[in-house]
Structures are given as structure tokens and as C-alpha cells.
């Protein structure tokens, strides 16, 4: 089977959470980033419902592939390789993509690359036509409704190390839960942002999780947001019990500041400890303007350059999965066998799953 | 040449000629490993049948009923395989494959006067329920006649439900993909639609509506 290794045309399938993402890339050039989201269906439940997400993937997959092909102007017959997220993520949701990708690869008689979702978030950066090439090593902070991970990337296709991750809620989940406490709708991120605009970020000293000296010994790069959420709840309840109005703008701004502070502090600590003057931000929560501002400002003071992929590629998408597979193809890696499943807890060190022995 | 794919119980794949000659059949009875095995089963079924993907003209998709997580894998695979080749998907009620197998088998052995007796194909639906579909006989197109659409019943109530209507119970542990493909072949020949476009979940997703936030203060 001849595969174009110089500039492979790759279709990527991503179904790890509530976005059905179909991406098409040629080498490092983005041709389509098609996303069908089931977010609206989850809104009334205040969070992603796995079975609802999985059902939505099955319905959205085929129309999304058609839309991606139409947008990119390529035919499936021209595709050099198929890529799919095998994990981490919601098991039932991942399985839809895995089943679909395998059958598509067999049907097209093309190689299949099963890849890691988190590493895909880093690969999204490659598709930015205006950015200089990614330099190594780089620290990467990935923040979304499903994950909060701090990584040391020495090479995108061969060497990604997990420095730390959340011990409980993902940062995006904390935004959703606090939004609900404040009577704001789902998803919480943009709502908290809006409410925080007129608030004082220093009004309430909410705790920074895993930031005490005693915590830092074992969890230097780990995160915890459940204590913060509880602290916000307690503060709001005390106000209500005292018959005083809840200053929503101040609570939102102070909560957001606590999240942003701990994310940026730990990411920059990783940069300092590993003597890496580069920080890459990824994941849907990067859409939060305050997080980007604080990261850029404090990184600059420390001599660290911040890279942020285009925001349309920060949320979960298939283009980043295709981009990662494209890098694997270009670096001469063998495809995956057909013997792999959905792995909801796939470690970030497994960049590609089930690589064929060559 | 029809490719049949069903993951409503285990995972089953078959390649069948339009006239019903079975070229290959591959299956895994593992009730959980659908995503792991589906790709190899398709590949092996094609190889064993000595056909390439390009020779497949239709994909028969088992639409359930069946436990959701596994069921979706086969439907997703059927749809993208067909998409890759630009060929149609023929949705089939998974129980139809079992019913067709029973009817053909009984006809061959003449021990079962199929025209007179109704029977139910019964499969495990988990959560202490069975999925069942009631059939009686075979129609002019060679397809099993469904008397009622697939439904769920609590495990300890099914026998009462069936005996009330004089329906014989036929439990199935596997869905024969070759018979699924044969049912599709007959539907194509008769220019009929025999299965639903959407998966037969028969249950709403499990969701819990959030109540008011729980108090955290003592
Ligand atoms: Zn993600």
C-alpha cells in the first residue's frame, strides 16, 4: 500500500466527550475542522451525560464526515490514512469513533492510526499557519471540562511526560459546578466569565488547591478543584444564612482568579523547574480570556513564551487527531493494528496505540 | 455481495452473495469487546470470502435491540464502511436474523408448522430485562413476518406475557450475521425497507436531573 509520507491526507475522528469531530489535514495544513456538538442536549443536566453523548455521536458521525469532505473538497478515495482517538475519554463515546474508524480504514484499505486525545490537543498547535514551528521541549497545560493536565513534551510523536493532573474535578467542571451554585446556566465557563467582568478578583480569598508547602511535596504539579468548589458553596451559604445578598460578580471573579492563579502558577513552576522557556496552552477552557491574560503576563515576567493554538482548535476536534496522525505518518511510524479498543484512562505517554511491529 | 455486521449481542460479521450463499462468517461472543474486535472481524470476513472491500455492494446493519454501548459500534462501523465505498446501508432488526434462521431451519426439518405458530425471539437486554420480538411465518419476499415491534419485558414477567398470547419462546445467544445479510438481500430484491434508520435502544438514556445544589455547611 503506497502512502504519501511527505504530505499525507488524513481524516481524523474524535468522539471522546460531547463533540463529534471530523478533521481533514494534508500534512500540516488544515482542510476541515468539522464539529457537531451535543452540548445543548446536556445543558439541562448541568454536565455531559455519557449515554446522551454516545447516542449523539452515532447520529452525527456520518453527516459530519460528509460535511468535512465537502468543505475540504477531497474524496474519501484520496485519503492516505484514517486517525482516531482511542482515549482517554468517555468509554461509550470513544467506542463509536473507534468502530467507525476501523471500518472506514478497512473499507478504504488505508492505514489506521489510533492516537491519544491529550497529545492531540498539543498537535492542534501545528495547524496554526501563522505560528513558527513547535520547539522542544515545551511544557503544555491542557485545561477543559474533561481534563486538567500538565505535560512536558520533548517530542510530540515520541516523548510526552505527565507532570501532573487533577486529582478530582477538571477545571472546566469546576466552572460548571460553581456556575450552578450561582444560578448561572451550563456551560459555566462563559457564564462565570461574563459575571466576573464587573467583579473584584481579590474580593474573596478562595483557596488555591494543592498549593501549600505540605501539598507541594507530593503534588507539585497536580491540581484539585473540589475544595475550591466547596469553599465557594460555603461562602455563598453563609451570605444567604446571614440574609445578605450574594455579590455574584465578586464571587465569580474571585473564583475564576483562584482557578487561573493555580493553573498558571503550577505551569510556570514546571517551566522553571525543567528550565523550559516555552508554555503551550490547550483545551476548551483556554477560551477563558482571563486565563490567557494572566498566563501571558506572568510568563513574560519569567521569560517564558506562551503559545496558544487557534481557539477553534482548542476545544475537542478531529483536526488535532488528524494532525497528530499526520506527524506520525511523516515521521515514518507504522500504523496501528486493528486490535485496540477504547481506553478511557489511556496514559498520555501512549501517544499512539497498538503500533504494528515493523 | 453483502457485508452483514451486528453487535447487538456479541460481534458478528458475514459476507453473503445476493442469492444467499454464505461466503464467510466471523464472530466473537464476547458481550463487551465490540470496539476491539470489529475491525479484524470485518477484515477476516472479507479475506475468508476472498473478496475485496470494493466488491461489497451493500452493508446490512443490525439495528438492535441490544445493549447500547455495543450496539452502536456495529452500526457506526456499518455506516462508515458503506460511506468509504459509496454504497448503501440496509438496516435490519437484529431479531429478524434469528427469526429467519429459525424459520429456514424448521422448514428444512418440517417439524415446526411455522405458518400456524407464533414465536418470540428473546435476547438479553441486561438490567433484568429481555428484549423480544414476536413473529409468525414468512412472507412472499422470504422475510419473517413481525407481529409486533421489538419490546422489553422484565425477566420474570416475559413468560406470562408470551403465554397469554400463545407465543412460543425462542431464546437467542447470538445474532447470525449471515442471516442478517440474507434478510437484507431479500429486502433489496423486494425493494423493501425492513429496518429502522435509528438504533433500537428501546430505553431512554439514564440521566439524573440535577436538584438544587447540596448544602455544604453544617
Ligand atoms: Zn479534550
* Ends apart, CA distance between termini of chain A: 15 Å
The CATH superfamily of chain B is ATPase, nucleotide binding domain
Query: Rg of chain B, please?
Result: 19 Å
Low-confidence stretches of chain A: none
Strand neighbour order, sheet with most strands of chain B? 3-2-1-4-5
**N-end to C-end Cα span of chain B:** 69 Å
Structural class of chain A: alpha/beta
Counting DSSP E segments of at least 2 residues, the number of strands of chain B comes to: 10
Largest sheet of chain A: 6 strands, mixed
Order of helices and strands of chain A: EEEHHEHEHEEEHHHHHEHEHE
What fold name stands as the CATH topology of chain B?
Nucleotidyltransferase, domain 5
The gross shape of chain A turns out to be globular
Give your account of this protein's structure.
The complex is a heterodimer of chains A (358) and B (218). With 358 residues, chain A is of the alpha/beta class. Helices cover 41% and strands 18% of the residues of chain A. In chain A, the strands form two sheets. A six-stranded mixed sheet of chain A has the order 3-2-1-4-5-11, with helices on both faces. In chain A, strands 8-7-6-9-10 form a five-stranded mixed sheet, sandwiched between helices. Chain A starts with 8 loop residues before the first strand and ends in a 5-residue tail after the last strand. Chain B has 218 residues and is an alpha/beta fold. Chain B has a single domain (2-190), classed as Nucleotidyltransferase, domain 5. Chain B is 32% helix and 25% strand. Chain B has a five-stranded mixed sheet, with helices on both faces. In chain B, strands 6, 7, 8, 9 and 10 form a five-stranded mixed sheet that branches. The longest helix of chain B is centred in the middle third of the chain and has 18 residues, at 68-85. The model of chain B has no long low-confidence stretch (mean pLDDT 94). The chains are: A alpha/beta (358), B alpha/beta (218). Chains A and B meet through helix 2, helix 3 and helix 8 of A and helix 1 and helix 2 of B. Bound molecules: zinc ion. Zinc ion binds at residues 117, 121, 144, 146-147, 283, 316 of chain A.
